[in-house]
Write a structure and sequence with these properties.
heterodimer; A: alpha+beta; Alpha-Beta Plaits; 28% helix; 29% strand; globular; B: mainly alpha; Arc Repressor Mutant, subunit A; Tetracycline Repressor, domain 2; 9 helices
């Protein structure tokens, strides 16, 4: 595959384990998301999502509704 | 739409190896790496899930390259002397060509990362095991515990390679590794290990 159609990356403030649990409970239920992970070692707490169908705007809205900062990592 | 760019991925991998060689694993951050490789941090995350994934992928890639070079022209049915000499030559060539890769592999192996589930056993190990089994079966080689065997069979080679990179030996004399002096060391080793 020559495209990264399904990889989205965001800068967030999802820092602690409890924060992770909160996000987990929601993302887990979002069937359009195949895989996701947060790089806790990175100062930007990068959220990486593998999904064919969800849009960045939808992800940002989802995360912000939960009370966390979220913006797309610039290309 | 972000496109896969092999040259970008290669730049990221090579820069990562350089950074690890000069600053160790702790020196590697995704942000610093992005700067060094001239890509945005987002680009790194397209190819690698996180820092741990990057390190594992680097190891897997490097090890694959090492295996291919080391097995070049090699056949597990070769005679013990022929096979071991080829191993020496191939490993020497690989070390000279990719000194940073070897350093990286050593660092990685002695770190807790080596037990990651993505790192699997390989055809290389099987090929080498097969070679030694054949040599023992044909009574060409003395049987020794594997660690002792490895220390004698490869230890001298790696010592000479170290001297070569330091440009001098432990005695302080100038040293350059050549096929000639490599052969000299090999003769002694093969004498010790041959039946």
């Amino acid at each position: 595959m020559n495209e990264f159609a399904d990889v989205l990356v965001f800068k967030t403030d999802i820092g602690s384990k409890t924060d992770f649990e909160t996000i987990n409970n929601v993302l887990h239920q979002e069937r359009r998301i195949k895989k996701w992970n947060i790089d806790h070692e990175d100062i930007d707490h990068v959220l990486r999502i593998e999904s064919g169908e969800i849009t960045p705007t939808e992800v940002i809205q989802l995360i912000r509704t939960l009370g966390y900062a979220c913006e797309e990592l610039p290309e | 739409m972000r496109l896969r760019d092999e040259s970008k991925e290669l730049a990221i991998r090579e820069q990562a190896i350089e950074m690890i060689v000069t600053e160790g694993f702790d020196g590697l951050s995704m942000k610093k790496l992005a700067l060094a490789a001239n890509v945005s941090p987002a680009t790194i995350y397209l190819y690698f899930k996180n820092r741990e994934d990057l390190l594992n992928q680097l190891y897997i890639g490097i090890h694959k390259g090492f295996e291919e070079e080391t097995l070049r022209g090699f056949n597990p049915d070769m005679s013990f002397e022929e096979g071991l000499w080829l191993q020496w030559k191939n490993r020497m060539a690989y070390n000279i060509k990719y000194p940073h890769h070897i350093f990286f592999m050593e660092q990685f192996r002695t770190s807790p990362l080596i037990n990651h589930k993505d790192i699997k056993g390989s055809a290389f190990k099987e090929s080498m095991a097969s070679f030694f089994k054949n040599a023992v079966k044909r009574n060409e080689m003395v049987e020794l515990p594997p660690e002792i065997f490895w220390a004698i069979a490869y230890g001298p080679l790696y010592t000479l390679i170290k001297f070569h990179f330091n440009k001098k030996s432990i005695m302080g004399n100038k040293f350059v590794l050549t096929e000639q002096n490599m052969r000299q060391a090999f003769q002694v080793v093969i004498k010790a290990l041959k039946r």
